[in-house]
Amino acid sequence: MSYIESLRVFVRVVELGSITSGGRDLRLTPAVASKRIKELEKHLGVRLFNRTTRSLSPTEVGKLFYDEARAVLETVDIAETKVANFSHAPRGTIRVTAPLGAGRRIIAPLVPKFVEAFPDTRVQMRLSDRKVDILTDGLDVAFFIGTPRDSNLKLRKIRDCDRILCAAPKYLAQNGAPKTPDDLLLDQFNCLLLRYPRSPEYFWQLQTPTGVRKLEVAGKFDADDGDVLTDWALDGHGIVNKPRFDVAEHLRDGTLVEVLPDTPPVPTIFGCLYPHKKLQDPKVRLFVDFVVQQCGARLD
Questions:
Q1: Are 61 and 48 in contact (CB under 8 A)?
Q2: Which of 104, 189, 211, 241 sits a CA distance of 20 to 30 A from 229?
Q3: How far apart are CA 295 and CA 145, in angstroms?
Q4: Can you tell me the distance from the alpha carbon of 122 to that of 115, in angstroms, rounded to the nearest whole number?
Q5: What's the pLDDT tens digit per position in 77-119?
């Protein structure tokens, strides 16, 4: 198994561009990851990487070996998956990603329960509101809020989620409350936006009696972390567009108040994406089914 694990380290180092990143992705220290690479080079009798003080890149033979090593690992994964289908005790690591808010409030609380039910599994979570590349990052399943565009991945819709516009009472006391969707375009209202490269939320879509309105709202500051937007809204800095479950506690205690309730944002989708080959992996299937069964109350 040590040779297979060395192949995994090599592949991730190539894909992530550094020994530190590749090791971290596999939960290894840089020293251990570096040792695995050196052992592999010694075994093969070739240099797999060109190293400088600032960069690391595969040699020509390293590029060739990467393609073959990745194919070997995929074959091993498929073989293990087929064997696992004969067992009622799934085992192995499940690499999961989710948006920050949904990850913290929906997925993360379920992880210990899942591992307790299936003790031979491990779950590695990465939380980010940025778009991730599931295949490049070696992930098994990616939960999302919104409408994904990855046509090469399998999508499982879990449920529709209402969205809501809301703000702190003190913000509304100081600035007034918008009475129509068009009011959001006025300079007096600061819209708190989730923005990052290729972000889909540079605009808000509201449901109106005449149909869906797409509003190119603006604000004085934005962030790539949805929880930061919620904190800004709680501190009285603007109006935020959030899934209702994400701010339900603040609505209940009155620290946030719904605005424009008659023309709410278009509902969003809570679901997950995973590579087609992962459909056959019982631990991934079981984890997704577990989340679907357990998350209902957390989304209300």
A1: yes
A2: 211
A3: 14
A4: 7
A5: 777 766 665 556 677 889 999 988 889 888 999 999 999 998 9
